[in-house]
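Quick entry between incubations.
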Amino acid sequence: MDTNNYCIIMAGGTGSRFWPMSTADHPKQFIDIFGTGDSLLQSTFRRFENVCPRENIIIVTSSAYRGLAEQQIGGLQRYQVIYEPMRRNTAPCVAYAAAIIKQLNPQANIIVSPSDHAIFDNEQFTRTIEESVRAAQSHDWIITLGIKPLNPNTKYGYIQYNENSVEGNGKLHEVITYTEKPPYDMAVQFLNSGDFLWNAGIFIWSLPTLEKAYRRYLPDVAVFFDKINMNTPYDDIEKLYATCQPISTDYGIMEKTDNVHVMEADFRWSDVETWQSLYESVEKDNRHNAIVGSNVFTYDVSNCIINLPNSKTVVLQGLDDYIVAGDESTILICKRSEEHRIFKFESDIEVHKNKQEK
Amino acid sequence: MDTNNYCIIMAGGTGSRFWPMSTADHPKQFIDIFGTGDSLLQSTFRRFENVCPRENIIIVTSSAYRGLAEQQIGGLQRYQVIYEPMRRNTAPCVAYAAAIIKQLNPQANIIVSPSDHAIFDNEQFTRTIEESVRAAQSHDWIITLGIKPLNPNTKYGYIQYNENSVEGNGKLHEVITYTEKPPYDMAVQFLNSGDFLWNAGIFIWSLPTLEKAYRRYLPDVAVFFDKINMNTPYDDIEKLYATCQPISTDYGIMEKTDNVHVMEADFRWSDVETWQSLYESVEKDNRHNAIVGSNVFTYDVSNCIINLPNSKTVVLQGLDDYIVAGDESTILICKRSEEHRIFKFESDIEVHKNKQEK
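Done. Structure below.
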C-alpha cells in the first residue's frame, strides 16, 4: 500500500431516489440499501482502506449532514471530514479537500470517488486503482475509470477511447471524446460500436497534476490552494465558496484537458441511482425477487424489489413487478414501471404534512 | 332508561382473523378496526350505555386478556369485569355473569351481546332493545335479534319465523326453526324464501326466564346460580368451570326451548368476521377503497381494503383488489381473494420466530 495515496470521498449528494429510505435529511450515501449492514459511504470507505491508510481518506459532505459521517465511521481525525458551506458541484469540493491534502503531503496521489456507488469486487477494484496510481504518477495524467456499458443508459457520461492501450496491462487508453448524457439513439450507437466506456466518476491524479489543471482551467477555484489550510476559519471558507460558480470537475477540467486517460475497469459497478439499477446489480431469488429485509415473507411474489428494515415483519402475497420499500415509519408500494413518480409521491406527502402542521 | 336493564358483553373470543392487527394476545374485540378511535368493545359498551346505567354492564372475558377491558373502559367497578378461568363457550359465560347480576337485582332484564360486532345505527338499536325488553318482561319470552339476510352466508345461524307478528310494532315473530351454518344451497333457499333472518347473537330475557331455562336445559351449568356470588373465591369458580362441558346458549337452550321469539332489526349490522364482511359494511371512496388510516396515500388504487395505524405513512400505487393491513411492526399485503390464507401466513411467521429464538 502506497502511503502517498489519498482518497477524497464526495458525500454531499442530496439524492432522494430511494425514498422513503433515503430522504433530503438522510440521503442515499448514508443508507444501507443492500442490507449488508453497511451504508454506501461505509462500503466506499472500507474499499479505500485497501488503497491507502485510513487517515488518508477525506470525506467531503454538506453541513446539512453534520455528524452523519462521523457517526457511521468511527475514529476519524478532525481533518478527515470536511463540511462544504454550500453546494457548488464537484470542482470546489475536490479543490477544498485537495488543499487540505496538500498540507499533509504535497506529493500525494489522489483518488476522487463518489460515496454512493456500489462496486462488487473489492480485490479487482484495489488492483485497478493501484495500476491507475502508477500511471498517473509517472505521466502527469488524469486517469478516469471506465465501465463496459451494459445498456444504452442516457444518464451516464460516455468515453470514446483509442483501442490501442498505452500501458502494459492493456487496459489503459487515450480518451478520444467524452459525451455526457447522450440522446438515446446516440447511446445505442455508442454501445454497439464497442469503442465507449461509461464514466464511473472515479478519478486518479497526482496532487501536482490536479493543482496544475485547476490553475489552468478553473483559476477561480484554484485560489483554494492559496487560501485554505486546516486552520482556515469557516467564515473564510464560506466567503470563498460564495465566489465560486457551481461546476463539475468533468465539465470544468476533464472535457478541456488532453491528458485524460481511461482505465478499463473489470469489476461489476452500479451507480445505484434508481430502483431499476439496484435491481439489476443484486442477486435475485428463484422468482426473480431482489429482497433486503430478514422478516419478509413472500407468497406468489415475482420480479419485485423489496427493501425493508429487519425490524418490520412484512407478508406479501400476489405481487408481480412491484417496489416495496420502507423505513421505520413509512412504506411505499409501487409498480416498478412507475418508479419515476416516487418524487411526486414524496412531495405530495410533504405538502400534506406541512398543511397538517399549520 | 329502565334501571332494571343489565347487559352482559361477551369479550372472551380469540378471533385472529384480522392479523396482523388482531392477534391471539390482543384479539379483534380490543382493536379499533374501523379507525373511529374506539375498539369494538368500546363501541359495544357505549351502545349499551343508552340501554342501561353503565354500572349495570358486565364484561365477561378471559384471564388471558387480564387488564385489557379495564384499560379500554375507565371507571369500572370491580364486579363489572368477570374473568373466565377457561373457555367453555357461551352458556357458562352467560350463567356466570347472570349469577352476579342476580345478586344485584333478581328482577333484572338481561341483554346478552357479543363484544365484537358492529351496529351502524345506535338510535335504532336502542329502540329495538327497548321493545325487546318490554316483550321479554311481559311474556317470559327469550327474544333474539334477527337481521335481514343480505347474501347466502354459510357461517351464520338462520331463523325461520312466522310472518304474523305477535306484538304491536309488527317486528316480533314466533320462531319456527333455527338452522346453524347451513350448506350453501340451503342458505340460498333460505335467502330467497324471505322467511329467514340471520341470528345476530343478541338475546334479551328476564333473569327469571333465563334461570328457568338453564335449570331445565342445562342443569349442570345452572348450579352457578346456587354457588356463585361476588365473593366466591376464584379457585371455586375454576372448579365449577372444570365440571362444565363447553356448550353455547344457542345449542344448549335456544334450539330446545319453544319460547324463543325473534325481533326483526332495522339497523345495519356486521359480525366483522372477515375482511370481506368489514369491506361490505363500511363506506368506500370513489374508487371503491375502504380506507382506515390518516396517512394513506393512494394512486391508481381500486377495490382495496386498507387498514393501517395513523402513525404509518403509506404510499400505495397500482393496486387492485388487495388487503393492506398492519400494526406498528407488521404489514400484510394480500389479494382479497386469498384472505383465507391469512391464518397460514400468521402461523408461518410464528414458526419462523420460534426458530429464531432457539
